[in-house]
């Protein structure tokens, strides 16, 4: 019996843990370097020519669009896409569902890391650590010159209450912050049971001293923070984003930071990555920037490719994959 083939469209992580996990399960693993639609289609075709037609894709950043799916899915083709990471906005999930292709992500490999990075960013802004450091290095000894918050008087609005958002909320509450939560898909009673206050998005933005984003990137959440929503926020509000760059209109944020309406921001993700050299965000002193590093620890880097590969292994073996984001995909095959 010919082993199922899994194409790893792209992966910038070191080592061969993904391939090793697939081959240990009896699958054939083919690694490509595809970052465009045409390259993904070509990689799948080449893998089919050299062995069995690929049954699954492991994807880091490659676009899996309707056009790609039309070329690679169908009878005897790709039946599953496993995304190497939590977000899956590079996959057209609706198109995959229509074609009977399952899509899974890897939601558990870096919960601690992203949550702790987020809380570190919040505390850094609320205690003025970067500004103090810069001033001291420049020769200024001014203990009362920077913004410094009393946590028990500070409201943190957590937008998105999934695995990471709920952990950020728990940690913030433990530190003494007052926590608001907005998530239209989570019952308000569950939020209240955790000791937080569930509110609508407008109220969250209006009442928050700190806004931290943990929502998936969808058509409805793109530019969730734009000129209008930022204008409705408190003067001096702090903004933190360790989730997805396009949740924020970066031009609107830069304007609000420059005017002082937004007091400061801490960003780990951007609309374009790496952050372009000419980005206005690089020029503003009241912005803390990190290079999409919130997920990182040595342990997380080891877990990510393994978890991603196991999604494909379990799916192709007929075992449940709890992280499938489109459980309705099977209806297209009925």
From TrEMBL:
Gene Ontology molecular function: NAD binding; oxidoreductase activity, acting on the CH-OH group of donors, NAD or NADP as acceptor; transcription corepressor activity
Keyword Nucleotide-binding on entry: no
Coiled-coil annotated spans: none
Entries under CDD domains matching the protein: CtBP_dh
GO biological process, one term: amino acid biosynthetic process
Protein keywords: Amino-acid biosynthesis, NAD, Oxidoreductase
SUPFAM superfamilies, per the entry: Formate/glycerate dehydrogenase catalytic domain-like, NAD(P)-binding Rossmann-fold domains
InterPro entries to which the protein is assigned, alphabetical: Ado_hCys_hydrolase_NAD-bd (IPR015878), CtBP (IPR043322), D-2-hydroxyacid_DH (IPR050857), D-isomer_2_OHA_DH_cat_dom (IPR006139), D-isomer_DH_CS (IPR029753), D-isomer_DH_CS1 (IPR029752), D-isomer_DH_NAD-bd (IPR006140), NAD(P)-bd_dom_sf (IPR036291)
Family: Belongs to the D-isomer specific 2-hydroxyacid dehydrogenase family.
Protein name per the record: S-adenosyl-L-homocysteine hydrolase NAD binding domain-containing protein
Organism: Cellulosimicrobium cellulans F16
């Amino acid at each position: 019996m010919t082993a199922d083939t899994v194409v790893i469209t792209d992966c910038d992580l070191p080592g061969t843990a993904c391939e090793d996990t697939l081959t240990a399960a009896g699958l054939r693993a083919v690694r490509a370097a595809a970052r465009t639609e045409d390259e993904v289609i070509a990689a799948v075709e080449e893998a089919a020519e050299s062995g069995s037609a690929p049954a699954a894709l492991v994807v880091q950043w490659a676009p899996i669009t309707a056009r790609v799916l039309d070329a690679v899915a169908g009878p005897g083709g790709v039946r599953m896409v496993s995304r190497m990471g939590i977000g899956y906005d590079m996959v057209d999930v609706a198109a995959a569902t229509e074609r009977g292709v399952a899509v899974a992500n890897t939601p558990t490999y870096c919960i601690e890391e992203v949550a702790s990075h987020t809380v570190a960013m919040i505390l850094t802004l609320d205690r003025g650590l970067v500004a103090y450091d810069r001033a001291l290095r420049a020769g200024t000894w001014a203990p009362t010159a920077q913004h410094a918050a009393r946590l028990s008087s500070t409201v943190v609005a957590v937008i998105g209450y999934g695995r990471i958002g709920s952990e950020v909320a728990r940690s913030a509450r433990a530190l003494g912050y007052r926590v608001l939560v907005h998530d239209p898909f989570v019952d308000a009673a569950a939020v209240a049971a955790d000791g937080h206050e569930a509110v609508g998005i407008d109220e969250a933005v209006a009442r928050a001293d700190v806004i931290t984003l943990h929502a998936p990137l969808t058509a409805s959440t793109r530019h969730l923070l734009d000129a209008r929503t930022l204008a409705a926020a408190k003067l001096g509000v702090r903004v933190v984003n360790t989730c997805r760059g396009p949740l924020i209109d970066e031009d609107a944020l830069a304007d609000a930071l420059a005017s002082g309406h937004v007091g400061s921001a801490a960003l780990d993700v951007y609309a374009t990555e790496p952050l372009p050299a000419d980005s206005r965000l690089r020029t503003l002193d009241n912005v803390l920037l990190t290079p999409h590093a919130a997920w990182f620890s040595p342990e997380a880097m080891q877990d990510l490719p393994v978890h991603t590969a196991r999604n494909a292994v379990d799916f192709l073996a007929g075992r449940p994959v709890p992280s499938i984001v489109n459980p309705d995909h099977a209806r297209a095959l009925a």
